[in-house]
Specification:
The protein has 371 residues and is α/β, with parallel strands linked by helices. Helix content is 39%, strand content 19%. The structure holds zinc ion.
Length: 371
């Protein structure tokens, strides 16, 4: 009898353990609010799986914030006219859900404008934002607000910041607003429209209003190895704070780690790794925000891979730092390899599959119930 009781007791513990483990899983998923209210869409420009792997290897396999992702998928990145996309066509695909030709911004292959998820979010009363580490007129952020046939039309792209009601934008590219062929000063026009325009990180962080434009450099911002510092994670946190305050209906923001791509083009692993680490810091800020604010979905992906990076074996000695592997680039351009998708928070389970890059904004629009 005593023995029997003991066995039952052990069995009860095992069953309780299994049930609680199972319950824990279910509970965790129930805790994720099924209603998606806020979307933080993060794009690592040129961040293929090799860029993430190199960054992880370089820090001795210490997990990145990306490893907190609850669901993982893969995206096909080809454009309408090329198996290897550029950032303009890929940005347009991710922003509008339409594949277009390389070089095109916010227009379809027939050069007709296609509305972006940011523009639709605005129309639906959500607060909106764009944060980048290159110029705010560069291809990826441009695809979310502008409609021009060429990514090189950066002065025209800058004018779209007056045409949309984006609440917050931050990055470089001041010269496209102030040093223009038409002599206009778009920063003054933006001030007239109700924006506070700032040019220093400190002024971003101390900002208390609701509409902010930050242009922190003439064109591209400095790289991490040139001393950019904590701009991206800090600016991302501040942008989320402003957007949350600006609308009860929720918000949509795109945050770009713009210069991982630059490292690939330069075939410089130190740039790739330092820019990926910085982007991952911003991912951590976004995931933490989602933890504090149920109904927030964070989706992190890339527009394409840059550099054809691979990690062949170096001296096979784990005791020697940095000598166990090499970082090799097979091209100074982009490649057509699938890119990873990391999803976290409300609705994250929808991204756990292989999909077209255009499926991502379609899913985000559905989850936000945009009309
Ligand atoms: Zn590129």
């Amino acid at each position: 009898m005593k023995r029997m009781t003991k066995h039952l007791f052990v069995a009860a513990i095992i069953v309780a353990g299994l049930v609680s483990a199972d319950y824990g899983y279910a509970k965790k998923n129930k805790n994720v609010d099924p209603e998606v209210k806020n979307v933080i869409f993060m794009i690592g420009d040129g961040m293929g799986l090799a860029q993430v792997a190199a960054t992880t290897v370089n820090q001795g396999y210490k997990p990145l914030n990306l490893e907190r992702a609850q669901f993982i998928g893969l995206a096909k990145t080809y454009s309408a006219n090329n198996r290897v996309t550029d950032s303009a066509a890929a940005g347009t695909a991710l922003a509008t859900g339409t594949k277009t030709n390389n070089g095109a911004i916010g227009v379809d292959p027939d050069k007709q404008p296609v509305k972006s998820i940011l523009e639709k979010a605005e129309e639906n009363g959500l607060a909106t934002g764009l944060v980048a580490t290159y110029s705010v007129t560069n291809a990826t952020p441009a695809a979310f607000i502008a409609h021009v046939e060429s990514r090189n039309m950066e002065e025209q792209i800058a004018e779209y910041y007056l045409k949309t009601d984006v609440d917050v934008f931050m990055g470089g590219g001041k010269k496209f607003f102030t040093d223009r062929k038409d002599g206009r000063d778009l920063t003054e026009e933006l001030e007239d429209k109700g924006y506070t325009m700032v040019y220093e990180l400190d002024d971003i962080l101390s900002f208390k209003g609701d509409r902010l434009g930050a242009l922190l450099s003439s064109n591209a911002m400095p790289k991490m190895i040139e001393g950019r510092g904590d701009y991206l994670p800090l600016a991302t946190g501040k942008a989320l704070e402003i957007l949350q305050k600006n609308s009860d209906k929720g918000f949509f923001i795109m945050v770009e780690g713009s210069q991982i791509d630059s490292g690939g083009h330069k075939k410089d692993a130190s740039v790739v790794i330092s820019e990926t680490v910085d982007f991952d810091q911003a991912v951590g800020v976004a995931f933490d925000f989602a933890d504090r604010n149920p109904g927030t979905l964070v989706v992190v992906t890339a527009d394409h891979e840059t550099g054809g990076l691979s990690i062949p074996s170096g001296k096979p000695d784990f005791s020697l730092p940095d000598q166990g592997v090499k970082y090799e680039f097979s091209t100074g351009g982009h490649t057509g390899i699938f890119v990873p998708i990391y999803a976290y928070g409300a609705g994250a389970e929808n991204f756990s599959r292989i999909m077209e890059n255009i499926d991502i904004p379609h899913l985000l629009e559905q989850l936000l119930k945009l009309k």
